[in-house]
Amino acid sequence: MRNRDGNYAFSLSICSLILTNSLVLDASEYLISYRYTVQDAILYSEKLQVAHAMKKCEGKAQKPLILESYADNDLQKTLLANSNEFIDYIHTLGLHVRHRSLTTDFQNKSTTVLTLKTTCFKVDFNDNSAIIAPIK
Amino acid sequence: MKYSMLLAALLSASTIMAANEMAQPEVITTTQPSMMQVSDSKKEYLLTEKKDVRISVTGQGVAPMNTVSPAQAYALAKRAAVADAYRLIAEKIKGVRVDGQDLVKNMMVQRSTVRTSVDAMVRNANIIETTFKDGLCEIEMEIMLSHSQFAH
How far is CA A70 from CA A15, A29, A109, B28, in A? Predict the structure, then answer.
């Protein structure tokens, strides 16, 4: 018959592995990137990407932004609920501008892409608010 | 005695004028990019330690036709206008790369192509005023440039 105590060491090692990973992967750090494209003076596409940081970010937290948060520690939902404030805040951090225009026989077409390169943010969730600060 | 007093008064007046000039940042205003480049060629703006340069631009954006509400139209047009304003600032600070190509056949222009491109990083630009009328959003944006930002 199989000894039940034999699984104890295995369970312990799994638990310690999970605990170690949860300590190493800082849950309050996120990677955020944002990009939007304007074609011929009309907004063409917009993309905001949010992901947990898989390793600890180096640097110090900079100028923070405080957002109302009703979602249960869900950064994506919090950012979508306060998208205008957050996008205005992103603009203050600095965006990369890439513009291309083509004029053929006096007819002009243009494309402008504004990009926030993938940046690490420290996020602290409180009762009804989330404090977001870029780490640089 | 009379001449020395007059000289002293002139000197103090010129010192006050110079101090006022140093305190106010230089202003560059842009609304139409093509016209701006012509007017700018006449005057060269220099960034010095004692003089900041303020660049002011007006970006324009249009709402798409398929919006579901005026609020959405405003939000989308504003986003486009901000991108346009950023582009104008980038053009002013970093410059524009221009490539032109004309195809001439039998002494006639068959095709004329002009490509322009801008790549830059813009930080600390501020929106001064936003207007939205008849589907067109205009954003006045400015950025302050100081010597210390570039002196590394």
Answer: 31, 19, 42, 44
Judge whether residue B33 has pLDDT over 50: no
Residues of B in contact with A136 (CB under 8 A): none
Q: Is the Cα torsion angle B72, A113, B47, B124 positive or negative in sign?
A: positive
Query: B137 and B63 in contact (C-beta within 8 Å)?
Result: yes
Q: Are the beta carbons of A38 and B84 separated by less than 8 Å?
A: yes
What are the domain boundaries of chain B? 26-150
How far is residue B146 from each of residues A68, B27, B140, B149, measured CA to CA in Å? Answer: 35, 13, 20, 6
Q: Which residues of chain B lie closer than 8 angstroms to A106, CB-CB?
A: 112
* Confidence band, pLDDT 50/70/90 cuts, at residue A19: very low
Q: Is A105 on the interface with B (CB under 8 A)?
A: yes
Min Cα separation B146/chain A (Å): 16
